[in-house]
Amino acid sequence: MERTLVILKPCTIERGLIGEIISRFExxxxxxxxxxxxxxxxxxxxxxxxxxxxxxxFQRVKDAMRVCPVIVCCWEGLExxxxxxxxxxxxxxxxxxxxxIRGDYSMSVQENIVHASDSVATAEAEIKRFxxxxxxxxxxxxxxxxxxxxxxx
Length: 153
Ligand code: UDP
Ligand code: MG
Prior knowledge:
- Helices cover 39% and strands 17% of the residues.
- It is an alpha+beta fold.
- The structure holds uridine-5'-diphosphate and magnesium ion.
């Protein structure tokens, strides 16, 4: 099983879409391993968006993530990183395919509803960045046999 980090961005909180977005991941069959609400700091965001540090929009993107608290969560499943990236859709909400989260809820490159880890290495680093070890739970899920074949897990 893989774990991936998702952040519900301030636009999602302010538009009242928390339940709707969480619900998509639940319905897909991903397992919630961790979740909390936090107000991000510029320092944490500089780390999180380090790959954008030379972009002219670096500060704008960081500031937009601090408009209000965000919901950070960790979802677990087989190939969860790719599954969640596919569910999120293209970065630009206008270009994201209908049926994806960004395609269905966003008209913007920046205000694009969710952050989602993009590789095994970033998922591992991002989960560590936002959660202490004891905040990420491992538990038996009674309907696992309805989600996967016996030899698939
Ligand atoms: N972003 C932006 N303008 C751009 C590229 C990115 O405002 O031209 C913002 C957008 O909110 C995006 C975030 O910066 O989600 C991180 O960019 P990244 O390229 O990692 O896209 P993502 O992985 O979120 O699809
Ligand atoms: Mg990214």
